């Protein structure tokens, strides 16, 4: 049987990880996170599509496509987390298990980061655990998909 496919989606500015603001986001680059996700996915028997975009509409299109092409979504929407009804609607329409990830603890930061539009469509949320959050999200999806069988 084919391995379940997980779309790992990264939104605005996450391509800058490890390049700027290491005091908040650390020195790990998005490419490092992709490598770690690929290793964890292989160990869990998952296939991943790892993507980043700075464009809200592109993220929406990828989520729409995931409805037919994927079995689960890991999403760190970057600042779109706090603004995007369009991404929330797309996630609801996708009808897939969704794990929302944030590298930093958004609740310990500025007030405007405390609210996430995405959370209303999330099965679970992982915040503040650094890049490890992506790996924990893959673990969680592997368990969710196993229990669905
Ligand atoms: O903690 C997270 O993972 C965030 O989703 C990261 C977003 C931020 O807007 C959210 O509130 C929390 C920012 C993405 C990365 O932005 C960078 C900007 C400059 C340098 C490095 C990263």
Along the chain, the helix and strand elements come as: EHHEHEHEEH
**CATH class annotation:** Alpha Beta
Ligands bound here? ligand CA2
Please count the beta strands (DSSP E, at least 2 residues each): 5
Question: In which order are the strands of the major sheet placed?
Answer: 2-1-3-4-5
Features:
149 residues; alpha/beta; Rossmann fold; five-stranded parallel beta sheet; 5 strands; 40% helix; 17% strand; globular; binds ligand CA2
Describe this structure in words.
- It is a single chain.
- By secondary structure, this protein is an alpha/beta fold.
- The chain has a single domain (5-148), classed as Dehydroquinase, class II (Rossmann fold, 3-Layer(aba) Sandwich).
- The protein is 40% helix and 17% strand.
- The chain has helices at residues 22-25, 30-44, 56-69, 85-94, 132-148; strands at residues 5-10, 47-52, 72-76, 98-102, 124-127.
- Strands 2-1-3-4-5 form a five-stranded parallel β-sheet, with helices on both faces.
- β3, α4 (85-94) and β4 (98-102) form a beta-alpha-beta unit.
- The longest helix has 17 residues, at 132-148.
- The protein starts with a strand and ends with a helix.
- Ligand CA2 binds at residues 13-14, 16-17, 20-21, 25, 76, 78-79, 81, 102-104, 106, 113.
